[in-house]
Amino acid sequence: MLFFVMYDIESNKVRRYVVKYLERQGCTRIQKSIFLADLEMSKFNEIKKDLADVQAVYENNDSILVVPITTEYLRSMKIIGQNINIDVITHSKNTLFF
Question: Which of 9, 25, 68, 84 could form a disulfide with 15 if both were Cys (CB 3.0 to 4.6 A apart)?
Fold first, then answer.
């Protein structure tokens, strides 16, 4: 399952925790507050639950978005500025040996 995780978190401590958690789960940071992942549905559901639990622990005005996306939509995304290697994240680059 391909999905974005985007957040706006005020607390530096909570933000660092979320970043380290997402990296451990196999998500790839593509911008300071945006991660992209291509993981199993069970991992997607686990991440959604864990982030909801973090959000519920303390009073805040933060927001965390977990957005499923299709490969087709991702490939049609227009990147302005620094390039993002989508093939590495989606594991779709194939190498042929002769």
Answer: 9
- CA distances to 19, 29, 81, 85, 97 from 22, rounded to whole Å, are 5, 8, 24, 18, 34
Among 58, 55, 9, smallest CA distance to 47 is for 55
Instruction: State the amino acid at position 55 in one-letter form.
Output: Q
Residue 43 has pLDDT above 60, yes or no: yes
Q: Sheet containing 28-31: which strands, arranged edge to edge? A: 28-31, 34-38, 2-8, 63-68
Q: Judge whether 58 and 64 are in contact, CB under 8 Å.
A: no
Exposed (0-12), middle (13-18) or buried (19+): which is 96, by Cβ within 10 Å?
exposed
Q: What is the largest CA-CA distance in the chain?
A: 59
Residues 44-91: pLDDT tens digits?
999 999 999 999 999 999 999 999 999 888 888 887 887 777 766 666
